[in-house]
Amino acid sequence: MNAQSLPRIAFHAPLKPVDHPVPSGDRQMARLILRALEATGPVEVASSLRVYDGTGDAALQARLTAAAGGERERLLSLYAAAPERRPSLWLSYHVYYKAPDLIGPHIARSLGIPYVVVEATRARKRLTGPWSAFAAAAEAAIESADLVLCVSARDRQAVEAYGPPGQRVAMLPPFLDLPASVERTGPDSPPRLLTVAMMRPGDKLASYRLLAESLGILADQPWTLDIVGDGPAAAEVSALFAPFGPRVTLHGACAPTDLAGRYRAADLLVWPGLNEAFGMVYLEAQAHGLPVLAVDNAGTGTVIRDGVGGRLTGPAPQDFAAVLAGLLADSSALRSLGRTARAYVEAHHGLPAAAERLRHLLTALTRQVPA
Length: 371
Hints:
By secondary structure, the protein is of the alpha/beta class. It folds into 2 domains: 3-175 and 350-368, Glycogen Phosphorylase B (Rossmann fold), CATH 3.40.50.2000; 192-348, 3-Layer(aba) Sandwich (Rossmann fold). The chain has helices at residues 25-40, 58-81, 104-111, 132-144, 153-162, 203-217, 234-241, 256-265, 280-287, 300-303, 317-328, 331-348, 351-368, and strands at 9-12, 43-47, 89-95, 115-120, 147-150, 168-171, 192-196, 224-228, 248-250, 268-270, 292-295, 305-306, 309-313. The strands form 2 sheets. Strands 9-8-7-10-11-13-12 form a 7-stranded parallel beta sheet. The relative contact order is 0.13.
């Protein structure tokens, strides 16, 4: 495949731009998609405007809509003045009712180029209520896409159920840039548990609560827990784990280089992951040979295969505690899961495979749509 056949791509992440100062799975995935696209052909971050309303604020939605209109005008003027920067394809990452794409569809129509969405979440029930305007914009953007790439089977089902006839839909499994493989000796005595997650109200806090309740059931068993994370619910999280005393250490936010050391030093990542879209932390841990334990749902099941690199449980604290107790008591099972974890991620979730899949899908799409 020669360079002339590769599309010039404009990239946008409305929910969390790649240069956003707060680390998260969304920002990391946006950066990884950008790297995969760079292996596909020339790519440019078209806009760093964050279009996100987390509370259903009509005034904020109006301001963001106006700002997006200004971005559309800026980009069309730019492409008219500098034709060499004109994209032949627009790709947006993570479009849903709280973070619609208010830029890409308009630019794609104006330039007559394909429009692609990676990770589209359809939520038609939000067409009424405080997010109605943003939900309508998200639905319209997803429906207009020439190609929708889904990261989970759950999202694909909704996209295909409500999408227009003939819309191209495909899977793009979550992926990461694999770290160097390390030889693990573990597990320690007592086993070292690790949690890595943002501290936010809602599902994140509910996951922390489930974890604390599960560990309370196992208070008489040997273990220690390190928690890496920060956020607006930090005080609540601290209170949940205060009864465990020095067995639990909260480290706050952690730089990626330091986090790699945490993965290597731990024996098991424990994070329930209630309603996770997929959870990059599970891939990161497994890539370091660290087995993982999570609640079974459509998101966690996207990146964890039960019995291969990790275990999946039911949603009750008793379910989580029962599987955790079995792993704490069986060091050979932990070692076995760790050995298969790295191999599983290499085979199914590596950056090179994702880049090649994007190359194939996007070049095929641009060839089918006239310039």
